[in-house]
Amino acid sequence: MLIAGPDTRVVELRVHGVQGTTPQTLVDAVAAVDVAGDGLGRIVRPADRLRRPAPGPVLQTEGRPIPRVVEGYLWGGMTSGGVAKATWALLFPFSIANVAHWMLPPVPERNLPAHLLGIGLRSLLRVFALLLTALLIAQISVVSLDLLAAQCLRPGTACLTSIPDDMRAFPWFRTFLGLLPILVVIAVMRRVSHVDWRIERKEIADAEDKDQQPSSGLPGAHVATDPDTPALRTLHVVAALAVAALIALGGPLKQLTASGGMGVAITVAWIAALVLIGVSVLGVLLLDDPTGGAPHRGGRWLRVALGRTPRRVLLVLSGLLVLTTLGLQEQLPLRVPGSDVAVQVVALLMAFVLVLFGVLLVPAALLARKTWASLPRELRPWAGGWFSAPVLAIAGLLGGGFGAGVALPVRKALGEGLQLPVGYDYITLLWGVAGALGLLSTLAVVSFTGAVRWRAFRKGKVWAREASLLHSGRMRDLRTATRAWWWARWERNHGHHMILIIASVLVVGAVLATVLRVRNVPLATWTVPFSAFGVGVLGLLAVSLLRAVYLAARQPESGRRLGIIADIAQFWPREAHPIVPPCYALKVVPELVSRVQDHLRDPGTRVVLCGHSQGSLLVAVAAARLLEELPPHDRERIGLLTAGSQLQWAYPRAFPAVVPHASLARLAGGLDGRWRSLCRGTDPLGGAVMTWRRQVFDGMLLGVGYRPDGSEGALAPALRGPTGALVLGGDHWLPDPQRGPFPGRRWRSGVSAHSDYTSDPEWDRAVAIAAGLLDVDAPESPPLPFARRPETRSRDALGGS
Fold first, then answer.
1. What's the average model confidence in pLDDT over 134-149?
2. Which residues touch 37 (CB under 8 Å, ≥6 apart)?
């Protein structure tokens, strides 16, 4: 531990979690001002009455008070605020497919079968993502080309009577009106895929652009920009334009018929559309081949074939194909059969790819099992490393459901006489069966959970022995905490099971509907209630998303709440699907690293990175980058503090290849005891980070966890801090409700759960330990004085004294 000198000061750099926050809340001040940043990534400090940056409260250590500067990094503007960002929620299926890529199991080194399986899985993910884009275009074609242009605007109909028959009969009017919404959606998707966060400082951008191999063994080492993203973006746009043209020309199985030169032209355009779709599929299959990414390997031709000039040629050709399609259809037919066929063909291809992906994922997870076989069960990946498959299934089914959910209300709004494709009857049946199974599953889960909880509390079973230590002598707080501990533990342990249940009920409904449709079985009368229920479920799905976008435009607070979806999904760079919002981690992490390096230029400054919830993942990746870049004497002046973090129970288990357990151990060893984690048993979203296998024995809290040298093993019994917190290894277990109030400190009554960790006085002590100014193994500090006298008697059955 470095000795504090007379010029020592501590910079506490805080990063918030999901949903964003205000600058004042982040730095615990009544006013805050920006001191750096570009408006999207803002660095703020507390302010005085003249709106000038003010110093933070001093940090009390065993020797003397140390000056402290409190800064906060605000990144919420990258994911919420404004209609443009709110509409990203409509791309949620694309984002889920992209997240599924990062959930793949790790590939063991020097294992050829695992390496080949990894290539195959990543390629199948990209093909599935391309089909997801094609499905969206096909479903928009059902609404714009078939419902609106072909049926509603046909001359002589009573639909939209404000448009006269002369205009309806005008050549190319209906065809243009039917293709226009499709082209607008494609243009918007292309625009979204081009949006990226700019790093203002040139030296940071230059460092990020260097072609360096990512350092292995630390959290988030693979979170980087994919060089194949521009090519992948172009292939998706080309495929979308080609699918639109193919549907207008008759569909993927049969072209429109015409005589003479018109028939030849339609045939040529139809074949050209198929060729462009084939080129797109082949491109996404090969893009993830590592030999194509290395200039000195045999696949360098792929880089040349998908360079800037060839990509522009493909875009021009696909655009000309759509214009040619418009010119070939002076008047649309009475129906556009290609839209129904396209939806069904794309859906069947997605199902085939998904099944193949799930089958290949089984041996890949088994081969990767040796990387986590030695870990206890609570630290192993969810579903044995197979969690990517159900997540991908949810992405595909949500994508199909949203399109159908939009088509059904549009048909009802335009008129009851309009007809949807036959395949949509089976889609409503799918969601009706899935919705019914979902209700039954929810009822079963709620009933079982309630019964287990009632039985446990009636028999006096102790679910949270740690709570009896934290709230010893406070019967009322112990009773409240025990209930909160039970529910929080249940949510952490079974949250992923709920996702598996959702995926299962959707897949069951999809299998039933697919079998009936492939065998062309007419729907029986018993399916009518399920189809009606499915119409309601699909309508609710579409209306909920569209209403969320509308509220985001009228009420910014709603847009911030909607940002929860983006905050979780947008951490991951574009990999499987390029038409997703940009990854904010690629901007936040390098700017955090640069800010820390700026502070470390002062030899007396020590910096503690503090992250809450999702911010804990950001500061962990930033700390890992700092350990890679800083010289040894500067590494000793950085510390890490996480609060309400998912770095043990969620991220290593959902993303075992990106944030593996071993990477957290290496990070803990690199920080040499300067990684502290604040956790509450009442927090359903956060949990312990540094310890596991905890148990209470003979009035002591014991457990296994990370040691300062990075090794893992049994830890010394937990020490009690001056405010009642139990410190086991690097985890600080906070009593919730707090044991105060304490004189001169901010007080928060009741159960805090996942919020307001900075209100606990243990925060300052953890910052001092992370800064290397306080030894956690020091003799027990005297408790702080209470503003009110605590209870000294307890009648609670859980062991409080």
1. 91
2. 43, 73, 74, 591
**CA–CA gap between residue 160 and residue 148 (Å, rounded):** 10
Separation of alpha carbons 67 and 64, rounded Å? 10
Contact between residue 425 and residue 402 where contact means Cβ atoms under 8 Å apart: no
Strands of 712-714's sheet in order across:
691-697, 700-706, 712-714
State both tokens at 190.
Answer: 């292309």
Unique residue bearing structure tokens 């949006």: 195
Q: What is the tens place of the pLDDT at every residue in 253-294? A: 888 877 778 889 999 999 999 999 999 999 998 886 544 444
Cβ neighbors of 247 (< 8 A, separation 6 or more) are: 137, 138, 141, 145, 336, 338, 339, 342
Which residues neighbour 689 within 8 Å (Cβ) at sequence distance 6 or greater? 616, 642, 645, 647, 648, 664, 677, 679, 730, 731
Q: What is the dihedral of CA 734, 740, 745, 749, to 10 degrees?
A: 80
Side-chain-facing half-sphere of 753: CA atoms under 13 Å: 11
Supply the DSSP symbol for 47.
B
How distant is the alpha carbon of residue 401 from its chain centre?
20
User: Cα(341)–Cα(348) distance, rounded to whole angstroms?
Assistant: 11
- Other C-beta atoms closer than 10 Å to the C-beta of 19 total 16
Q: Taking a C-beta distance cutoff of 8 angstroms, is the pair 184, 154 a contact?
A: no
Instruction: Tell me which residue of 97, 89, 95 sits closest to 354, measured CA to CA.
Output: 97
Surface-to-core class of residue 779, CB atoms within 10 Å of its CB (0-12 exposed, 13-18 middle, 19+ buried): exposed
**Of 442, 421, 486, 407, residue with least CA distance to 144:** 407
Gyration radius of the chain's alpha carbons:
29
CB 562, CB 552: distance < 8 Å: yes
* pLDDT value of position 105: 94
* Token pair of 361 as six digits: 């994922």
Distance (Å, whole) CA 607 – CA 636: 10
Which of 345-359, 387-401, 525-539, 676-690 has the least mean pLDDT? 525-539
Whether 617 contacts 608, CB under 8 Å: no
Q: What are phi and psi of 34, to 5 degrees?
A: -75, 140
Read out DSSP for 49-109? TTS-B---PPEE-SS-EE-EEEEEEE-GGGTSSSHHHHGGGGGHHHHHHHHHHHTSPP--T
> Shortest CA distance to 141 belongs to which of 338, 4, 333?
338
Buried b (16+ CB within 10 A) or exposed e, 153-163: bbeebeeeeee
- The alpha carbon dihedral of 170, 176, 181, 184 has a sign of negative
- Which DSSP string corresponds to 237-286? HHHHHHHHHHHHTT-SS-PPP--HHHHHHHHHHHHHHHHHHHHHHHHHHH
Collapse the DSSP code of 37 into the 3-class scheme (helix H, G, I; strand E, B; otherwise coil) and give the result.
Answer: strand
- At residue 605 the predicted structure's pLDDT band, cuts being 50, 70 and 90, is very high
Tokens of 724: 């009642």
Residue reference for tokens 């002590």: 765
- Distance of alpha carbon 40 from its chain centroid, rounded? 19
Instruction: Provide φ and ψ at 389, rounded to 5°.
Output: -65, -50
Task: Give the angle subtended at the CA of 752 by the CAs of 749 and 757, to the nearest 5°.
Answer: 105
- State the pTM of this model: 0.89
**39 three-class SS:** coil
Torsional class of 91: left (φ above 0), alpha (ψ -120 to 50), beta (otherwise)? alpha
CB-based contact 468:800 (threshold 8 Å): yes
Query: What is the CB neighbour count within 10 angstroms for residue 458?
Result: 8
Q: Which two tokens stand for residue 554?
A: 């009228």
Cα atoms in the 13 Å half-sphere on the side-chain side of 415: 13
**Which among 579, 566, 545 has a CA at the least distance from the CA of 186?**
579
